[in-house]
Amino acid sequence: MTSRLARALLWLPLVACGDDGPPPQPETPQFGSATPEELVLAMTLEEKVDQMHGSSLAAVDDLFLTPDNARLGIPGFRMVDGPRGVRAGRATAFPVAMARGASFDPELERRVGRAIGREAAARGANVILAPTINILRHPAWGRAQETYGEDTTHIGAMGVAFIEGAQEHVLASAKHFACNSIEDTRFDVDVTIDERTLREVYLPHFRRAVVDAKVGSVMSAYNQVNGHYASENAHLIRDILKGEWAFDGFVESDWVFGTRSTVAAANAGLDIEMPAATYFGPWLVEAVQAGEVDEAVIDEAATRVVRKKVELGASMTPQLDPDVIESAEHLALAREAARAGMVLLKNEGALPLARAAGTLVVVGELATVANLGDQGSSGVTPTSPVSPLEGIEAAAAPLSVVYIAGPSLTAADEATLAAADAVVVVVGLTFEDEGEALFNVGGDRDTLSLHEEDEALIGAVAALSDNTVVVLEAGSALVVRPFIDDVEALLMAWYPGTEGGNALADVLFGDAEPGGRLPISFPADEADLPPFDHESLEVSYGFLHGYRHLDAIGRAPELPFGFGLSYTTFSLSDPSVSPGSLDAVGSVTVSVTVTNDGPRSGSEVVQLYVRVVGSEVERAPRDLRGFGRITLEPGASGVVEIELSAADLAIWKDGGWQLEPAAYFLEIGTSARDLAFELPLTIGG
Which CATH number applies to 3-316? Predict the structure, then answer.
């Protein structure tokens, strides 16, 4: 039934009664005192379609708007990026999502989401276009830094935490739905993928965002999936997202080129075209009037949009609060998150650096740069970002700090390096090397190697100093084989945010631990990974990538998924599963005791993998299915518990989820290649 017919039917009882004169006019419902259905019922077709598009191509005060409805008192959305902080004016630049993913700490990520949501509201926004939860299929993807890693279980846990935190203040938008893992051809590439791979690898984390976190909106991707653009892919949007997952929010397109049609997109379930009406607006009104789009489709979309506005209530028009922006609390949180995500990849006693009379030499042009990462839609502009050199100089006393830019070294530089007590070399990538592809900047990487001059600089310094520490900055994996054996310590700092320099100094001098574990695999050779084609307009996504692919082909990574060293040591003991069997709808709890055997406090990340023997379908040798982080004082022990449900073990087969009859084994350890225990799991009692 169309809304016009429904309104007409409201008159029938009054006319039938034969009352004198026209019936009384019903009061116009108003936002704040009416239900979404009542508000939509009161709208004209044009007003409903107005709920379904942005206002203009240009941002207003760095916010992208959708129209207000003054007659019904319905405010429009005020949308803002982004995944590592608010892209509006000045804001706290948190570490990139990949760095936060390395923390393996959902509770910390919930706090980050809360802070970003709070700053978004303080800027007048009511929708934050984050988190990015696309699978990192290959580390050369230009926007790798925007997501949390390569594993669906890990991404799902971190994404849920961010959404729950952010939605205390604004609506979150999980993006980009779906199969968006290539940047250079993102507008047109057609990803061919079988249904099982889609369901088991590329969608579970989106499902968690919808079902577990109740995300308010989902952004469709630019690319095609199996021959249909994501914004007009009815299988993704109608069948899965809104059908099977019962998503009650709205789907907005990615910007400008994210919508490719009027009729197909509307009928497939796209609810809002952003940032302006190119295909919706008057063209959508005409399509309804021509019978190409049923008005019920418009009613559904408008109701979804208005529903989320009603749920936000007063938060639809947040109060501007400049004191929230870059508050001391948020800067401290950014520093904490940066420390928690830094991964110690190698340490032969060089770290932590001793604070004693002597000389510390800092080398590399990036040492003087607050290297924040991509400057595209995820870019953030902080007021006073801290470079590595600034952080080190502020924390080093009584050490004397000397800076050498490089990459070429003079005779005087070589003498200084040879005499130094320790050397810190800062090298890596910038927004010019990777990121959103904009105006011939960023985009996908052609190689996982450092720049040749950086590798040469590391080699030259390592030949002069027997206490060389290399700090890497990048958005995802690097091939470190050319230099890892030549240096005494290697630290992955990612793009660490506005407080990155201070956080780096905290870790280098031992005021904080390097808390991170790798959320991606570092290959020994990039040829070990699946091919990464960022030129063709037709690509296929296979079932295996990352650690799952490396395990399957029998190639050892240089540094495995989940790996990271600490300034202390840990041991695992007493693994158990309770109850001892798992039925088709139940769950079990996997427990293990962790002991800090070292001299100082620290954190360990326990990881649970599942190995299946006797399967009738292609399987990864092991799949991460849970993790838990624990912090312990020296000599202390604690228990990490990880819940595993039957749904975590199900596969997509014959059009549905099935728990396959096979032999299941639970592997418990501290990385995908360091698994201390294996326990059998009985299925079905």
Answer: 3.20.20.300
Map tokens 């939860």 to a residue: 133
Catalytic, out of 254, 444, 551, 648: 254
Question: Reading across the β-sheet that carries 224-225, which strands appear in turn?
Answer: 228-229, 224-225, 190-192, 538-540
Active site residue 254: yes
User: What are the pLDDT digits (tens) for 631-662?
Assistant: 999 999 999 999 999 999 999 999 999 999 99
- What span, in angstroms and rounded, lies between the C-alpha atoms of 162 and 84? 11
Helix, strand, or coil here: 640? strand
C-alpha–C-alpha distance, residues 575 and 578, integer Å: 10
Domain edges within the chain? 3-316, 331-553, 570-683
Topology agreement, domain 331-553 and domain 570-683 = no
How much of the chain is helix, strand and coil, in % rounded to 5?
Answer: 30, 25, 45
CATH 3.30.70.20 for the 570-683 domain, yes or no: no
Q: What is the CA radius of gyration of the chain?
A: 27
Is 442 within 8 Å of 142 (Cβ atoms)? yes
Pair of tokens at residue 466: 């027997």
Q: For the segment 441-484, what is each residue's pLDDT rounded down to a tens digit?
A: 999 999 999 999 999 999 999 999 999 999 999 999 999 999 99
Kind and range of the H or E run holding 134: none
The pTM of this model reads 0.95
**Could you tell me where the DSSP H helices lie in 313-440?**
328-341, 388-395, 411-419
Q: Of the CATH numbers 3.90.550.10, 3.40.50.920, 3.40.50.1700, 3.40.50.300, which one belongs to the domain with range 331-553? A: 3.40.50.1700
| Helices within 173-294 (DSSP H only) | 195-197, 204-211, 234, 263-268, 282-289
Q: Between the CA of residue 48 and those of 35, 55, 116, 594, 669, what are the distances in Å? A: 15, 14, 31, 57, 54
